[in-house]
Structures are given as structure tokens and as C-alpha cells.
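Hi, here's the filled form for the chain we discussed.

Project: internal
Contact: R.S.
Residues: 129
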Amino acid sequence: MSFPAKVIRDGLLEKRSSGLLQLWKKKRCVLTEEGLRLHNCKGSKAKELRFERMATVDCVEYKRGLVYFTVVMATGKEIDFRCPQDGTAWNAEIALSLVRHKNLQAVQTGRNRHLSTAHLGSTGEDEEL
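And the returned structure, exactly as it came back:
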């Protein structure tokens, strides 16, 4: 059974388009434990940026009351965002959630490695009867 991911933050962000003019477009964003979902304000299908495909949150600049930041994907693709500087900035929330996700992955990988080596170590071949 799959449970919906816990919502950490929900609100508006502006994303720079990848077109020739690189216009800023408002997106309704939902930050969850699994990643960032971007909804067009028109209500079409959401785009999801999952943490397992993210590398880092970078390039923070403060200008005229706005925070500009970049989400860098594992493929090297960069996605630019901006948001108001008031309160806790989206970039900090996304970065903390990404670190939390990567830490949980590392712990799980360590557990799996420990369990597999413990299991492989107890073959019973060296035991005397």
C-alpha cells in the first residue's frame, strides 16, 4: 500500500522558462518528502522533481527582495527559481529536504550492506558439528 508523501510546504514559486526569452512563470509548488511538484496555475499535469534525481540546490542570490536559486539535477540540468525573501525561503526548505533524503538513503544503503555481509558471513561452512 502506498501512502501519500507528507507535504512540507505548499505555495507559489516562479520558475524561469527554458525558452528563448526565459520568462519567469508562476508555479504552484508542493514540497514533499519525495521531491518538488510543480503545477501550472492553469491546472494542467504537474511536473515532479524527485530528490533521487537532484544533485544540489545552488546559486543563491538576493536581489530586490527576491531570492534567486538553482536546482541542479543529477543529469546536470539546471532549473532556475525565484521567490520572495520574506520568511523561510524556498531554497532553504528544498535544500534541507534534499539533505534529509540523501541521509536517509545513505543510512538505508549502510543497513542493507551490513545485513548482506552479515548474511554472507554466516554460511555455516566453517562451523564444526
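Let me know if anything looks off before we file it.
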